[in-house]
Sequence to fold (346 residues):
Amino acid sequence: MQDDTIVNFDLVLKVLLLPALVFLINTYFSSCKGKCLTVYVRGNGTKILGSSGSLKTSGFCIMSSLPFTGVMIAFFNCLGSWIKQVRELENNLYFNAGRGSVLTSNGTVEMEACIMDGNTKNCGAVSGLTTVVNAISLARLVMEKTPHIYLAFEGAEAFAREQGVETTDSSHFITPRNIERLKQAKEANKVQVDYNTRPIPKDDKTPAPSGDSQLGTVGCVAVDSFGHLAAATSTGGLVNKMVGRIGDTPVIGAGTYANKLCAVSATGQGEAIIRATVARDVAALMEYKGLSLKEAADYVIEQSAPKGTTGLIAVSATGEVTMPFNTTGMFRACATEDGHTELAIW
Fold:
């Protein structure tokens, strides 16, 4: 299939959105008996063509070309169950995290992840992982088992082995689809920002007009019945990125942040998100300007982050949820225990 493949919108909803939503709801509810309020499934910003309900995708397969991020408002004492859902998404090769991570210019993977507890501001982040099966698990161990916040590359790998974290040969992460993505990016001498948008030349300092830097970054935000908040994000980064490149995901305050007011996980063009300190700015506007979560997130997306580069998911201590984006569209869905469901793109 070619880049101009048109996927029927109704088929996308039936084949991808609803099964993904049902999967998250069923697996979460079955493993956690807490009072789960809401579950969301949200996709990275993507270029959507026209208003007739069709969208342009890369065409390898429906699921591989649509980026998704999960959001959960959940009973925080079920943190193990919540992290398990991130792990499940990392294990799914259709997401740009874990098993499906895109490749560097050397044809290798360098995965990164971050987790933050808003109540204590404890956090853990990892980058440059090549053998760790679940980066989010290692990030949690950095938070809980070390005096540090951030471990990267060989140091992070050594810590993973020390802690008995599951590892595998790096070839496990090299999938045919991502080999093809890298090949296309190299032929164009580009760093691939999004399969549905214009790639960014390596020497181009301006952001792409639309699209996101991460194909299927996995992200979650959570709040428990006491108002305790947490955020987590995991990704493989950019197609054909330079070896050693670190994106926004593991940078506290950029791609991931949580405090006693809100939890935020961002997605999009990593360099733009870092410059705009997207996640922290949402919290700062609430803290210092007294804005609501929606007002703060809308300001950051509309006034701070360059247009066409950023989307975020956020939840407040009172359970308010917002998911703004400045790309053309963003896949998102929600369901509540009372049976309410919602699906949206624009």
About this structure: The radius of gyration is 18 Å. The first helix runs from residue 9 to 31. Residues 1-19, 25-78, 194-199, 205-215 have pLDDT under 50 and may be disordered. The chain has one domain: 6-26+35-340.
